[in-house]
Specification:
- This protein folds into two domains: 218 residues, Spore Coat Polysaccharide Biosynthesis Protein SpsA, Chain A (Alpha-Beta Complex), CATH 3.90.550.10; 79 residues.
- 38% of the residues lie in helices and 20% in strands.
- Helix 7 runs antiparallel to helix 8, helix 7 packs parallel to helix 9 and helix 8 packs antiparallel against helix 9.
- It is globular, with a radius of gyration of 19 Å.
Length: 342
Amino acid sequence: MKKVAVVILNYNGKKFLEEFLPNVIANTNAEMAEIVVADNASTDGSVAFMQERFPGIRLIVNDFNGGFATGYNLALKQIEAEYFVLLNSDIEVTPQWIEPVIELMDSDPNIAACQPKILSYYDKEKFEYAGASGGFIDKYGYPFCRGRVFQHLEEDHGQYDDACEVFWATGACMFVRADLYLQHGGLDDSFFAHMEEIDFCWRMKNLGYKIYCCPQSKVYHIGGGTLPKSSARKTYLNFRNNLSLLYKNLPSNRVFWTIAYRIVLDWVAALKFLCGGGLKDYWAVIRAHFAFYRRIPSLRKVRKGLPKQLVGQVYQRNIVFENFLRGKKLYSELDPQKFTHS
C-alpha cells in the first residue's frame, strides 16, 4: 500500500487527461504515491484512451455519473492509502507538490484535510477562484478565500505563503486522511457537485479536526472544466447546496435565523440576475430554493446524527456587504479580529 493515492475523477475530460496526466505522473514520487483515474461513465472515449495511452495507471470505471461527490465516494472505497488526494483533471502540478503537504499533515494528526496554493493556469501570477490560498466562510455561509473575494482575484506576491488553519480546503486539490474520509461517509452524495468539500470540511471541524492550507505546495488550475463558470446549472447547485450545508452543520441556536437571512439575500441575488438579463440564473436560484425546501425532512434526519458546535475560521460579518458596499476586495482588508477561533 502506498502512503498517498492521487485520485483524478474524470467525466468527459479526455482532453484534460491527455494534457495534464503526463505532468502529474512526471511530478509524483512513485515510491510514495499511486495515481488512479476514476471515470464517471464518460461518453467521450476517455476509458479507451486511458487503456491505450496509460495502461500502467490504475483505472476505476464507475457505472454511472453520480457527480463529484458520489464519483469520488465510489472510487475511494476501492483504494487503500493513508492519504487520498482528490485532484481535478484540469490541474498542472509542480515538482514536490505532494511532499510539503504530507509533511505538514504528518506533523499534526488533528489536520483532517489540507490544500496547496491554487494559482490560475492562464494567469500564473494570480490566485485561482476555486481555493486560492485557503477557504473561509462568513456568518451567512458565503465562501471566500485568501486571495479571492467573490470575483476579485489577487496577484500572488507571497502575501499568503504561511501555512495556516482555514475553514475549507478546495475539492480541486484536497489532501485528506483516508481513514477519516471513509469513517465519516466521505462527501455528501446528495450534493452531486459544488460545495461538497465545504460541507465535508465543516463536518470535520464539528468533530474537532482542523483544515489547513500549505502554500509551500502549489498547483495551477484551469477551472470550470466540467461546468463552465457562467452556468445556470452551477448557479442552481451552488445555491441549493449552500443552504443544505448551513442547515446540516450550524449550531441549533443559529440555524433558523441564519437561513432566514440567507433566504432574503438569495432573493436579492435572484432579482439582481433578472435585472442583469440573467433569466436562466434567476430561475436557477428559484429552483434551488424550492429544491432545498423539499429536502428539509431528509436533511433534518441527517442533521440529528451530526455533532455541531461553534467552529473557528468563520468571518463574523457579512462578506457581501463588506465587498459590495464597503469596497473590501482583498482578504487582507478584512478585520482579523472578526474571525472566530477554534
